[in-house]
Give the backbone structure.
Amino acid sequence: MDRRQLIFAGVALCGVAPRPADAASAELEGAVRDFTGGAVPRDGRVRLDVAPLVENGNTVPISVAVESPMTEADHVSAIAVFNTRNPQRDVAIFHFTPRSGRAAVSTRIRLATSQTLVAVARMSDGTYWTAQSAVIVTLAGCIEES
Amino acid sequence: MARTLIDAPASAKRGDIVEIRMLIAHAMESGHRAGPNGNVLPRDIITRFSCRYDGELVFSADLYPAIAANPYIAFRTRATESGTLVFTWEGDNGFAQTETRTITVT
């Protein structure tokens, strides 16, 4: 392999390594569609709380809450959280019942890089609502040693 | 048995919404990480958590590798009757654990 080929090979590798943004957004759409069964979620009602700047991507606290009376007739049945730039789109799916009292949950997640988080809520009436939140990560999670 | 930490109130007023926080010691190996010899470590995570209140499911979660090690989840439930809260974790490689707490409702 001469020097020119080596440079081209290097450029090609760099091109492959980071995940192309459009492929990731198509994957995200697919993951959301799997959860909603094809319905397109509307913006609103969901509150997704995450620090805009996190130092350690290995453990990022997030909170998701949806305003709802949580009665038998009108409650939140599930909230799914997705990411845009981790190796895998799903983060978690939380299932609620009227007995949950409130559709609010907190957990800690991993983020491989700076990206946008998406929360989608499924209501008992079959509608879907969504919220997004952008996060900047300085130390990547998932891939490196924690 | 993995160590667990469960913060659930021992007593509550009827109708109150109580917060329950749980933490379980688990590496949540993502399956995307290389080990010391360079090979990718196989996935080993908790895939499901559920909480039952007197046998009735009040909250559950499907977990993926993006959940941080030592999974922590805080959720809520409405205190209806004195009874038991049963927490169950299930995961890869046959991981299964159950913990119980009692709650007194006045």
